[in-house]
């Protein structure tokens, strides 16, 4: 049934435009600004700009600043001060013709940068600086959080506000020192690599591991001679030495890694980067999900985010990743957006402006990409999503539904259902729900110490009734800054969850199509129940279940901030980025093809089309050739957008500059070789291995966009056409009324609290959030 969505789907366009200018690293959409002619005359500053981030979101006490002067001006007579102190010596007219400098020593909180010409006129900019450890906008930080140490050692952990304490082993932070404060800050570490000249042309891989790695470590004080170092040519045609520097450090209590072509024998300033870097950044996002409470080395995540990307390094990209943008280390994508912003600001302050940032990552790594692009437009310019989901918060709808169905199928009534009937109710073969249940029901359980990370003491973990003040170790407890909390009937404080199933008629499509009987439909709906905030099943014991089993009713005030903030990915903002969706067919797996069409449904709903979304399917996990093709395709797409100097909107430029070969396609193989890629199929070709399915919520009548957490209700009317020719007995009618007393879902209407409006939101003051608004600009005087 088609939903009638509200008209006037709008976004905070002014704020979005400001973000695009402030977060991408200078220029329109984050691209390099034009080069001005050499200086020749004095001038009055017309503006002061931050180049590395928005002026109100700066962190770590430094900022890359431009004092805007007319083309051809000199810096003579111009004075710059920071909070009244003269910092003019930090600035000069650089080779680009722009007056640039990096300010350090910013106060936490308010700062003022003033640029004054010889005639006393100029411009003034207010900056707000935040601590390196955060937070900035993602809300109060989860506690406890266990800082990593250089070598890993046991520390005493005390749960704040309780008498609970125990010894816990820390993780290795990948740095050369232990943290210097309780925000896990520690000095950065630098590791240097080179490719020996003897390896050039040997077919080695651009990594430090494997059978034939190109790179070996060296000490900067013992840099090999130029004759010993291989050359490479980046994608700008610049020949440079194959020298890399891996920077590892901390931001926002997590760790980060930045891998760049870097020669320690040559200078590098942000206004004069070394020639080996092509000015582009590639960000690696990691998969999975957990309620992790440990800082650890970002490069050690078992679920991706590794910076040794051959495609990026071959072209001259800088490559970055961060612990908090690995979904297994951090389930909160809003926090990931904040952390990526901080690390990108550091990159720009240190290395220079970024032409554009593209990314990749599968599963949880795809959620990271789409949500970050939704929360803060401009951080990412191009997404490569693999085995994708639009976001995490809506993905748990299917996970929990599958978990409920798996419990119902163990009851006397449920176990009597044939496998074909179960598949019809699930919307896919029954093995798929088993995989969901086995993989991601436990991470939602707050009582499991492993959810807080291996080695977390069981003595500190929440136990209902016994240890109510213990640490709750679920993925949802990592989201309380946005979800908020509620005091449950047992007196414990728990996250305010959005996973409502009141009024959901499970198996409705299966009933209408004759796959299940009226009695099986009634039994299913009175027996399926719900999960509590502690993941207890309301159906009780499977051998003697509670009937009817209670459904879960969410508090309606949890929904607006989920929709507005971009945590539920805002398809309106996603129209600002090209998306290449690499969709393998993996068989009985949680990564189902319908998720790609879910993303398209949201794009269609918000923008009237999905031309920026390219779907590339394959059999099994995509091979190396398919990944390389996608990388090059995205790079060409973004380069064309960069070159487009028209006044058109970014959304228009994304569509207008799509390469001709950037189109939907499918491969009957994994795409491991160029020969396999030559046999490209259409998505609708019978040989295409993609197998579209549904979800349990879609079988219940919900939309493929799966964007409704709490449905609006209508009266239970069994004469409704939704039931087809089904006839219910009076007793069955009474039983359905008992389990659906408030009515049933009206899927033609938006969800409770659902809004298409996006607001860049600060959650530091509480889960309702405060709109951040447009980026501040300088004031002339």
Question: If you had to describe this structure to a student in words, what would you say it looks like?
Answer:
An eleven-stranded mixed beta sheet has the order 13-12-16-17-19-18-20-21-26-27-28, sandwiched between helices. Strands 2, 4, 5, 8, 9 and 33 form a six-stranded mixed beta sheet that branches. It contains 19 helices and 33 strands. Helix 5 packs across helix 8 (430-440) and helix 11 packs parallel to helix 19. It is α+β, with helices and mostly antiparallel strands and 781 residues long. Helix 4 links the parallel strand 20 and strand 21 (382-386). The chain is globular. Mean pLDDT is 93; it is low at 1-40. The protein folds into four domains: 31-130, Immunoglobulins (Immunoglobulin-like, Sandwich), CATH 2.60.40; 154-360, no CATH class; 395-559 and 710-745, no CATH class; 569-678, no CATH class.
Our measurement of the CA-to-CA distance between the termini, rounded to an integer number of angstroms, reads 59 Å
Outline the biggest β-sheet.
11 strands, mixed
Q: How large is the count of helical segments?
A: 19
Structural class: alpha+beta
Query: What's the overall average pLDDT, rounded?
Result: 93
């Amino acid at each position: 049934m088609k939903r009638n969505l509200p008209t006037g789907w709008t976004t905070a366009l002014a704020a979005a435009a400001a973000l695009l200018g402030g977060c991408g690293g200078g220029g329109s959409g984050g691209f390099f600004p034009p080069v001005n002619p050499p200086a020749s005359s004095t001038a009055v500053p017309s503006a002061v700009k931050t180049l590395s981030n928005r002026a109100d979101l700066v962190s770590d006490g430094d900022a890359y600043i431009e004092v805007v002067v007319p083309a051809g001006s000199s810096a003579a007579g111009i004075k710059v001060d920071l909070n009244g102190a003269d910092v003019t010596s930090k600035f000069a007219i650089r080779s680009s013709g722009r007056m640039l400098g990096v300010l350090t020593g910013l106060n936490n909180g308010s700062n003022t940068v003033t640029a004054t010409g010889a005639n006393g006129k100029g411009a003034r900019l207010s900056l707000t600086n935040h601590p390196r450890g955060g937070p900035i906008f993602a809300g109060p930080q989860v506690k406890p959080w266990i800082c990593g140490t250089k070598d890993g050692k046991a520390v005493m952990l005390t749960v704040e506000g309780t008498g609970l304490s125990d010894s816990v082993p820390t993780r290795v932070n990948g740095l050369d020192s232990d943290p210097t404060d309780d925000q896990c800050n520690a000095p950065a570490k630098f590791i240097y690599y080179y490719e020996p000249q003897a390896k050039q042309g040997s077919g080695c891989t651009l990594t430090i591991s494997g059978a034939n790695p190109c790179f070996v470590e060296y000490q900067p004080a013992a840099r090999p001679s130029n004759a010993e170092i291989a050359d490479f040519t980046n994608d700008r045609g610049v020949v440079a030495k194959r020298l890399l520097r891996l920077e590892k450090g901390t931001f926002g209590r997590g760790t980060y890694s930045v891998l760049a072509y870097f020669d320690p024998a040559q200078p590098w300033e942000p206004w004069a980067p070394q020639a080996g870097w092509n000015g582009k950044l590639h960000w690696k996002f990691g998969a999975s999900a957990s309620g992790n409470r440990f800082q650890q080395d970002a490069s050690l995540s078992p679920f991706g985010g590794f910076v040794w990307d051959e495609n990026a390094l071959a072209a001259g990209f800088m490559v970055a990743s961060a612990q908090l943008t690995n979904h297994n280390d951090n389930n909160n994508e809003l926090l990931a957006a904040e952390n990526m912003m901080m690390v990108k600001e550091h990159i720009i302050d240190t290395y220079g402006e970024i032409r554009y940032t593209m990314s990749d990552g599968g599963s949880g790594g795809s959620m990271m990409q789409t949500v970050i692009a939704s929360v803060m437009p401009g951080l990412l310019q191009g997404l490569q999503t693999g085995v994708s989901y639009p976001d995490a918060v809506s993905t748990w709808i299917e996970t929990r539904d599958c978990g409920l169905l798996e419990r119902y199928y163990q009851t006397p009534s449920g176990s009597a259902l044939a496998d074909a009937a179960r598949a019809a109710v699930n919307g896919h073969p029954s093995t798929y729900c088993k995989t969901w249940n086995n993989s991601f029901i436990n991470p939602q359980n707050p009582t499991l110490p492993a959810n807080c990370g291996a080695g977390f003491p069981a003595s500190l973990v929440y136990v209902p009734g016994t240890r109510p003040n213990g640490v709750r170790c679920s993925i949802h407890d990592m989201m309380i800054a946005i979800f908020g909390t509620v005091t449950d009937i047992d007196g414990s404080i728990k996250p305010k969850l959005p996973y409502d199933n009141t009024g959901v008629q499970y198996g409705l499509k299966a009933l209408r199509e004759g796959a299940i009987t009226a009695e099986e439909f009634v039994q299913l709906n009175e027996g399926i129940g719900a999960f509590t905030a502690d993941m207890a099943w309301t159906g009780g014991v499977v051998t003697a279940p509670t009937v009817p089993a209670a459904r879960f009713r969410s508090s309606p005030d949890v929904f607006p901030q989920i929709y507005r903030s971009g945590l539920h990915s805002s398809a309106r903002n996603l129209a600002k980025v090209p998306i290449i969706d690499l969709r393998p067919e993996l068989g009985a797996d949680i990564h189902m093809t319908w998720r790609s069409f879910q993303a398209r449904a949201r794009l269609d709903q918000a923008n009237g089309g999905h031309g920026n979304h390219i779907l590339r399917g394959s059999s099994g996990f995509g091979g190396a050739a398919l990944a390389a093709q996608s990388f090059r395709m995205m790079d060409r797409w973004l380069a064309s957008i960069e070159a487009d100097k028209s006044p058109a909107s970014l959304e228009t430029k994304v569509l207008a500059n799509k390469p001709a070969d950037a189109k939907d396609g499918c491969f009957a193989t994994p795409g491991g070789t160029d020969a396999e890629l030559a046999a490209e199929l259409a998505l609708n070709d019978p040989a295409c291995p993609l197998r579209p399915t549904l979800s349990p919520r879609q079988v219940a009548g919900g939309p493929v966009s799966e964007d409704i957490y709490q449905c609006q209700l209508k009266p239970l009317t069994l004469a409704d056409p939704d039931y087809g020719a089904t006839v219910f007995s009076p007793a069955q009618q009474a039983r359905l009324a008992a389990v659906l007393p408030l009515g049933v879902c009206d899927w033609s209407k938006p969800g409770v609290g659902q809004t298409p409006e996006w607001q860049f939101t600060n959650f530091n003051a509480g889960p309702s959030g405060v709109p951040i608004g447009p980026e501040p600009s300088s004031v002339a005087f």
